[in-house]
Structures are given as structure tokens and as C-alpha cells.
Design goal:
30% helix, alpha/beta, 2 domains, Cobyric acid synthase, globular, 7-stranded mixed beta sheet, Rossmann fold, CobQ/CobB/MinD/ParA_Nub-bd_dom, 25 strands, 15 helices
Length: 491
Amino acid sequence: MAGLLIAGTTSDAGKSTVTAGLCRAFARRGVRVAPFKAQNMSNNSMVVRAADGTLGEIGRAQWIQARAARAIPEPAMNPVLLKPGSDIGTHAVVMGQPAGTVSSANWRADRAPWAAIAHEAFDDLSGRYDVVIAEGAGSPTEINLRDSDYVNMGLAQHASLPTVVVGDIDRGGVFAALYGTLALLDAADQALVTGFIINKFRGDASLLAPGLDSLEQLTRRRVYGVLPWHPQVWLDSEDTLDVPAASADAETATRRVAVIRLPRISNFTDVDALRLEPGLDVHFASSPAGLADADLVVIPGSRATVADLAWLRQRGLDRAIVRHADDGGAVLGICGGYQMLGALISDPAGVESPTQQVAGLGLLDVRTQFGADKTLSLCHGTALDAPVEGYEIHHGRVDVSDGEPFPGGVRQGRVIGTLWHGLFESDAFRAAFLRDVLGARPSDVSFADARERRLDLLADLVEKYLPVDDLLQLARDGAPDGLRAVPPARS
């Protein structure tokens, strides 16, 4: 099996970014490369089609990594996807399909069967691709979970994967984090860790040289390189840690879009395309003050619609949204946000919430009922005289009583609801929406081209600052023999 495990000192250290960059760099060399993440915890997901035509759901990060690899995204690239619905309960998706709920109290027992499924998916990809680049989850030194791990060193041991650890220098303490990550592993796991990458460095890299030399001497492992922080590096994120505060050109914007930052927000990348429009300030808001000067308020998707609706009410955001609409402002609800805009939400089976029935915001004449069956679809249509595409991921069935048809939903004046994610990635539709709803002049930005340019930029940085050919050879040859354990190794 040819492959690498890209591990990290923490969540959001840069594992997804490095994996995507290497996928594109390897693909440029004519290598058939696939991304993989055995278990992802994210509410940002994408609908993909399996080889047999079945639709499934994977983490958005693995979808964009597949695009970087110029491969077709499929469920095997993210065999286990966990979607947090509360602090103690998580919805599971296995090989693209719903697989019940996992509780924190039964964490080990609930996830035990998934190790074999995940490793089988990795082996399947390995048989069809030249190289598989696996992204770890969190940190490989979550030693309280090592006995049941199949995502980090458990996967590395299964497939004898050489492992590279990424550390984010922006967080501070990167040398301690890298050394500590290695030192807390047992000797067998340390034998697969071949070296390190430092991510998001700002300034003169020569200032790091003494620290890099010391780290290599202490660990007898290579620092493969230092990736700089770059303002234009952007990927479809899996983690709300990456939710941006505001658009870069906020001060010169002529229209303002406020996106409600729900606690259990899902598919927040739905507004990424809007962020590319030079005349828009797209910012995330969690209080009524954040909506004060907005032209458009967006209520995004939610993994726990009823709970997030209660959060809106606790903060007074429900009243602020209704006032905004009453004053003639535009409101867009996407998926769970659409359901919140309706008259009533029912969940008699407790699919998302123990609350069986709750009143919505009453801005749209629709009613939602949750059921056990999940809808997954890839959608195509026409709206505002423009072609539009999207995808659906939801348990709620929405019944519409009144309003003008809109893709995946309904429109009543300047209040719009849709079950379709990804609408704004359709350039012609986005332009028509901005003209019709906001009276704004759209740009000629192509979102697909912008995404490709960002992937190529990332690959260019990886090519410049990392030894790509050495890492490709490492993936093919495996970890070298004789990598010594460093104290205080666990035994």
C-alpha cells in the first residue's frame, strides 16, 4: 500500500490544507491519488455519488481534497462522518448512509464496528489508486482513546503508513507540541512518525532555523518544511474554527450580508461564493447588533434545528430577524434556517430534538415535520431566469401552503427559504439573485475558477516549501527502519 498519514498536533493545525496541497501536487505529476479520512467530525458535508449510483454523504473537506486530487469524490474517502447534534449526542453517517446516533457515554462501544469498515475502505482505495493520502483527526496523541483508534496511528499501523505531523505556529508553542506529540506515542507508533511540517509561519523563516535544528537533533526526524501563512489560501472547511469574521473588503462594500452563526451551524460554506463578490461584506453574527445594518440576513443550515431556534430566541435574534423582514430587509433561510422561518416545526419521533413541536418565526407559510428517513439529492433547476444547481441533506419534510416557488423552497416577498445547499456556486444564479434581491451589481467572478486557482495556489506553496518528490517517495517506500523512540515514550 502506498500512502501517507498527515497527522496534526491539534484540530485545525493544517492537516486538511496539507493533504489537499499534496493531492494536487501529486496529481500534477500524473500520480493517481485519493484523499481519505477514516472518521471525520463535521456538520459541513457534501452529497456524492458512489460507483453503483447510490447517493451518499461525506465531509466537505474530503470532497474538496478529491477535487484537488482530480479524483471523483466517493463515500470510501470518508467512511465515517460524525455530525454533532448536541454536547452528548452525535449523528453518524457510515459509508455515506445514516447509521444512528452515538452517545458520549457509549463512545467506544458505539464506534467499535466502524474500524473494520474504515480500514476496508482504505484498502479498497489503495487497490484503485497509486497513492492514498490519509488525514488524521484531532491529534494522534489522544492517548485516552488510543486503544480504540482507527483514524490516526491505528490506521497508520493497519496500513504501515509513514506519518508526518503538522503543527500550527500561529497557536504558539509549536516546538513543544511537535516534540510532545511524538514523545507521548508508544515505541511502535513512533516508528512510523518520520517528521514534521510547520504551518502558517509569518515573517523571516531564518529565525526558525535554531529551533528546527534542535527539533531534528532531539527527535532524529526531519522537518520537511515550513509553510507560510498566505491570505489567499482558502478551502471548503470542515470545522467552525475556520468560520471567518468578515469579508476583507468590508469597509468598501455597498451591500452587507449577515450570516447567523448558529451553535450547531452546518454547511456554512454555502456563503463562500458571496464572499468573493467585491461589493459585498459577508460577516457572521451572533447578536442582534450584528444585523443592524444588514441588507440580507442569512439563517444557514443546522444540525439541531429546534435547539438552534431556541438559541436564537434566547439571544433576541428571532425578534431582530422579524424586525428586519418587517422593515423590508431580505431574509434567506437555508435548510434548517428555512425550517426556522416557517410557522411550525414538528419532531414527533425525536429525530433531532426531544421537543415534539415548536413554533417557528412565522415569516413563511410552511410547516416542517422531521422523520427518520434522510433526503440526499443532487439538484438542478432554473430560477430568476438562470440555471442553478445545489444539493439536499435533511431529515425535515417541508409542506408549503403559500408563496412563489423557489428552488428547493418558496419565496414570499423578500423572505426566501430553500432546502438546497450550494445555490450561490452557480454564477448566473448568484448574479441574478444579487440584482433581484439586493439591487446589487454582481461581478463576473467564476466561483469554480476561483476554487481551482486557490487549489493551484496551495499546491504552488507546497511545491515551493516542501520536498514533494521526497514525500511521494516516502509514500511509496514506507517509513524507514531504525526510527528511534524519544523519551518519555509510552510502553
